[in-house]
Amino acid sequence: MEPLEPSKLPQPFPTFRPHRKHFFMALSRIWSAFIIIAILVAAFRFSFQPEQKEIFSRLVTGKNTDTVYVRQLDSAVLPAPVLTQLQREKTAVWDNNKVFRTADGQYRIFRLLPSNGVIDTCKGAVEICIGLIGIMALFMGFMSIAEKAGGIRFMSRIIGPFFSRIFPDVPNGHPAMGHMMMNFSANLLGLDNAATPFGIKAMESLQELNPQKERASNAQIMFLCLHASGLTLIPVSIIAVRSSLKNPAANPTDIFVPCMIATFVATMAAMFIVSFKQKINIFQRTIMLWVLGISAVIALLVLYLTSLSSGDLQFFSGALSNGIILTIFIAIVLGGLYKKINIFDAFVEGAKGGFEVAVRIIPYLVGMLVAISLLRNSGTFDVLINGLKTVFAALGTDTRFVDGLPTALIKPLSGSGARGMMIDTMNAYGADSFAGRLSAILQGSSDTTFYVIAVYFGAVGIKNTRYSIGAMLLADLVGIITAIILCYLFFGGAV
Questions:
Q1: What is the DSSP letter of 120?
Q2: Membrane-spanning residues where (predicted)?
């Protein structure tokens, strides 16, 4: 038999080696979509709504104190709660609008710009990062002492049996485990100022193990998805708002248990979603024992905390949180003294890293906040909310939950925006109304997903976020659905 010519030999299937630019960059696509949708909605409103002739100027140079429009209203179209509120106060809240009564008895409606325009948003992003410099320097300085004293590795060994199962790519005893534990603990206690430096330090530790520096590793995705689910023990700020309104809630703490359940379910959903994607067996004996143990501890704390009044709960939370921070500080210093390290030099070395990280995230934060500003000021959320209300009304379903949804839609984009929306909802419908309570539960059931992505991935230079955004948003959706179901279970009789 004659040998075949080389051109006629069977050829192997070509190996697929995607170039980095061909990766599906989810964050890039979403960011682009935000800007395109916002400008298209603004263009439509400019063309077909006469009162929106200044919308382009507001998108660029507007301030959140600017009035978008003012028009007169017939009292017949105002809902009874708004009229009741106007009898007690000068201004009432109606959806996203404000209503007031003039001296001659006429009713007028106006609306403030939801967010600063692009120019002021850029300034605000830099101010946020400047505000982070001091906090980052403080906590990363103490983290540097803890690392040199061996405290982080000690914590890593404690949590290792659990974390080694859900973070299989992280070696046992690696400092990243201790950093992640510190971040989760700070989140649980509502220590936002401490959680961010701990979280960024965890991302930097995980980045050391990442073979592809611009592509998110499995461990980084798992960590950020768990972090973004926002597991918090005591929603202190929400309880404080409910008790400080002009018409406060009868029992400001009645949303505590639903908030705790909703955020816990969202966290478990994040762990299951990422574990499924990474082919991690979540039903391993060690994982289940740790999850059940943590759940039992949280349940016992919840049982105790539900017995406290609103004032006692806020006092307990503040004393516990601040006490733990000071305990960490003194434990780190004592550990450094015991190990005979140069404590102050170690602190300064770590603090310098905090300054560098705060500066490094500026472009990421500017880009994300500008896109969010355009989306909010263009009226995109109004279109979405009105569309949802129309759809559910046409289906004949209960639409009370739609009035609380603006908080859920804005929360992944802006924490302060969601907080303002929650307050507006409570003012409009009442703190003890169904919508008011739902907005409070939604506020406490998730974190600011896109802010987390911009800050944490930006801090370590990750450009390819892979499936992390989809996993986070899916966990957010689980939290939203859970919050709605819980609100009907706990407060279904509220108007």
A1: H
A2: 30-48, 124-146, 221-243, 255-275, 287-307, 313-337, 357-375, 440-459, 471-491
- Contact residues for 361 (Cβ-Cβ < 8 A; gap 6+): 129, 132, 454, 455, 458, 459
Residue 145 to residues 139, 173, 175, 206, 345, Cα–Cα distance (Å): 10, 18, 13, 19, 9
Q: Is the pLDDT of residue 97 over 80?
A: no
- The torsion defined by the Cα of 153, 159, 161 and 165, in degrees rounded to 10, comes to -100
Helices marked H in 73-217: 80-88, 118-149, 151-166, 175-188, 192-208
CA-wise closest residue to 222 among 184, 273, 176, 153: 273
pTM higher than 0.70: yes
CB 306 within 8 A of CB 253: yes
Whether residue 94 is found in the same domain as residue 188: no
Q: What angle do CA 200, 204, 209 make, to 5 degrees?
A: 145
Task: Name the residue range of residue 377's domain.
Answer: 118-491
Residue given tokens 């100022």 in the structure block: 193
Q: Are residues 195 and 302 in the same domain?
A: yes
Q: Provide the token pair at 442.
A: 């939604």
- The answer to whether residues 342 and 195 belong to one domain is yes
Do 452 and 339 sit in the same domain of this protein? yes
Asked if 71 and 132 sit in the same domain, the reply is no
CA dist 164 → 159, 206, 209, 224, 353 (Å)? 8, 13, 14, 16, 27
Handedness of CA 115, 116, 122, 127 (dihedral sign): negative
Helix (H) or strand (E) run with residue 487 in it: helix 468-491
pLDDT in tens, 234-264: 787 788 888 888 778 888 888 888 888 888 8
| Domains identified in the chain, total number | 2
User: Chain-wide mean pLDDT for the chain?
Assistant: 83
153 and 299 part of one domain? yes
What tokens were used for 46? 């400019």
Buried b (16+ CB within 10 A) or exposed e, 420-435: bbbbbbbbbbbbbbbb
202-229 pLDDT, tens per residue?
A: 999 999 999 999 899 999 999 999 998 8
Q: Are 65 and 222 in contact (CB under 8 A)?
A: no
